[in-house]
Amino acid sequence: MKIIERTKIWYTISIAIILVGAAFLIFRGMNFDIEFAGGTMVQIDIGQEFDARGDIEPIVREITGDTNPQVQKVSGTGGATQVSIKVKEITTEQIEQLYTAIAEKYGLDTVDNANLISHSSISPTVSGEMQRTAVVATSVAALLMLLYITFRFKDWRFGLSSIIALLHDVLIVIAMYAIFQIPVNNTFIAAILTIVGYSINNTIVVFDRIRENTRLYRQDQLDQLCDDSIMQTLSRSINTSLTTIVMVLVLFILGVQSVRWFAFPLLVGFLAGTYSSIFIASPTWVLLKGIGRKGKKGGQAVKRVKHA
Amino acid sequence: MKSLKNVFILLLTLLIIAGSAIVTFVGIGGRGGDYSDRFGVLNIKLGLDLAGGVSITYQAEEGSNPSSSQMEGALAVIQNRLDSKGYTEAQAYLDGTDRIRVEIPGVKDANAAVEDIGKTAMLTFVGFDWDDIKNSSIMDKYYDLYVQDAIAALKEQDGEDAEYSESELLTEAKTYLPQQAYYTVMTYPEILTDALEAGLAEEVLTGSDVADASYQRGQLSQNSAVQSYVKLELNAEGREKFAEATEKYEGKYIAIRLDETVCSMPTVNSVITDGVAQITGMSGEEEAKSLAADIRGGALPVRLVDIEHNSVGATLGQDAMQTSVTAAIIGFILILIFMIVYYRIPGVAASIALLFYITLELFFINLLDITLTLPGIAGIILSIGMAVDANVIIFARINEELRGGRGLLVSIESGFKKALSAILDGNVTTLIAAAVLWFLGSGTIKGFAQTLALGIVISMFTALVVTRLLIQQCVALISKNPKLYRSIHVKKA
């Protein structure tokens, strides 16, 4: 299979997805969850045992329009009979509606909102400080990975290509968050970090083969070197992806809604990670080789020699 | 002889794996009681998202009317403290305008947690001239207190009919207390509050002027005893203020207070311009360490009172945990089936090694007291993926060698050898990322990094050592037929 030769196609597919994501990001924005954006907390004394997920959560979704509310049982002195509902910022009328709906469901007093313990606006649990820390930590990690790969592979192009592949995967996943309006919360950070780890590992396995095969090919056979190396590691790439994807797929099928919101981006990220290790990382490396060697048209020159 | 040795190795390996599985899934320790599952999987602490926890509500002291920036400052301090006390999975947020809520997973005793989060006290440095105070009317109240205390002490000593003269005691108080600044302030620390109100003392520094506080042990001067103390390092602003204050109060006192309690009350011997101060007078190492941690955690800009403790349910819903565990088990079994069907004997060996990997991972999560959350589970999923990957890389290599027409043992050896560089580089790179996130990250990120780092180290061990050991024994004992070591799918060369 001629993968390097069709670099443009692979790049186009990826860039198209990322651009669609960017368009959604600009026009619809990200669906920031209460953990990131803060919101409203409503506490109600139900006065009896209740089913938080089966009964209350659907009411909350319907009235507030929040796709990922947090409905928690709260135990006071009389057992777990209170409910704490955290949703994105809602109006006083919506609070009233929410209370009335829940009160009717459990036959509570609707006059004077007698069982409404409190409602207040709450701040995000993931503060701006924490978000900054996350970005700084990820950047430092990326830099150190770049240095390590450069050191181990004795070629900075391998390091840079791995990081570009990694960035690609992260962008694809962020695009999915924007397109499908997946709630951005704590699990968003975890999903991104998981994909960072997965992506880099996948890329390295292919690069390891290229490193090993380098002495078997001439300097002008870079395309062949990469294509062969990718093919030799293909069964491993497929099998590994298959197993990890199965793991997450089962989680997606069986999980509750909030777990699904987590499993879905992971699924996309794992697919993107596999894709980029085959179709993005090595082509980028070849491209960088060309630029480093003969100026901008170098890559083309290499290709022509091979076909001759 | 040789095969006896192989039987022994195989049995020993399987025994260790079975033993660890029993320890992890059933638990060991006493029968019944709280310790029956000391290392059991049920003993693992679950995060707020999966199992809920304790919710603690703090409210700003009445009448303090905190500004929103003060509340945000207080929130940041509390978040810091939670992190430094190991509650990495706790969540803290502002509730309304004057409350802070903290939700901590895996904690049964809310009071202990409140204690642990630390004092909600304010740190202040109060400079004063004792001569001003001792000659003021503030003292009257404390003369009376002294008399009452003395009477109480006498009664304790001699019983209810102890003999004393109140007027004599009052005279004693009036001569003794003014002479003994240190005794008076330490015994009646409220005197400084009165002095501050009367303008006879001033707050020269607060907690926000402190850059760092650390526990120290040693002599503070040549003749003093070795003692535990807290070394305070002030920031630039604090340094300047402290230099001014020590100049103004040279030969007088600067008391270091937490709320009203006076921690230490040094006499200012010289102007201090380097911005380093010591707090002495702690009962021992423990107290000094905890005080240093409290100060380092930051001094609160507002005084908080904890008004309510509740237990709260899982934020992801009560079924999140159950369904995730079921999913993980099913997914894992599917992987094992795939490995065995596709890779045959090596697949069986890898499956056993993976089982071992899971038990070890759970064991260490338990041992290191890591709180498991959904992101933490993501870390585990990723490391399972990498553990499987390591095996897949090795088996693909063994396949290639076999297809190249090499002998079985040579192929296995060379397969492991050639796979090593890819596995090592892939794992080390991910480990670098995990380590950075562990040390720089907070909260969720830290939890994720912990399970991931742990998983990578364990998976390298199980894939490179355990799988290999098992395959070698299989070759020696079960079959030397290369077909059983090749993947089913014979690929086009």
TrEMBL record, chain A:
Subcellular localization(s) per the UniProt record: Cell membrane
Membrane-spanning segments: 9-27, 133-151, 163-182, 188-207, 238-256, 262-288
MF (Gene Ontology): protein-transporting ATPase activity
Keywords: Cell membrane, Membrane, Protein transport, Translocation, Transmembrane, Transmembrane helix, Transport
UniProt xrefs under Gene3D superfamilies: Multidrug efflux transporter AcrB transmembrane domain
Subunit structure: Forms a complex with SecD. Part of the essential Sec protein translocation apparatus which comprises SecA, SecYEG and auxiliary proteins SecDF. Other proteins may also be involved.
Its biological purpose: Part of the Sec protein translocase complex. Interacts with the SecYEG preprotein conducting channel. SecDF uses the proton motive force (PMF) to complete protein translocation after the ATP-dependent function of SecA.
Protein name: Protein-export membrane protein SecF
Species whose genome carries this gene: Bianquea renquensis
Gene from which the chain derives: secF
Automatic annotation (TrEMBL), chain B:
Main location (coarse class): membrane
Transmembrane segments: 325-343, 348-368, 374-398, 419-440, 452-471
Annotated GO CC locations: plasma membrane
Key words of the record: Cell membrane, Membrane, Protein transport, Translocation, Transmembrane, Transmembrane helix, Transport
GO terms (BP aspect): intracellular protein transmembrane transport; protein targeting; protein transport by the Sec complex
Membrane topology reported for the UniProt record: Multi-pass membrane protein
Domain SecDF P1 head subdomain positions: 202-302
Domain Protein export membrane protein SecD/SecF C-terminal: start-end pairs: 307-468
Residue intervals of the Protein translocase subunit SecDF P1 domain: 71-126
GO molecular function, one term: protein-transporting ATPase activity
Keyword set includes Kinase: no
Keyword Protein transport tagged: yes
Protein's cellular compartments: Cell membrane
Record's subunit section: Forms a complex with SecF. Part of the essential Sec protein translocation apparatus which comprises SecA, SecYEG and auxiliary proteins SecDF. Other proteins may also be involved.
PANTHER family cross-referenced by the UniProt entry: PROTEIN TRANSLOCASE SUBUNIT SECD, PROTEIN-EXPORT MEMBRANE PROTEIN SEC
Stated role: Part of the Sec protein translocase complex. Interacts with the SecYEG preprotein conducting channel. SecDF uses the proton motive force (PMF) to complete protein translocation after the ATP-dependent function of SecA.
Family, as annotated: Belongs to the SecD/SecF family. SecD subfamily.
Protein name (database record): Protein translocase subunit SecD
Originating organism: Bianquea renquensis
Gene: secD
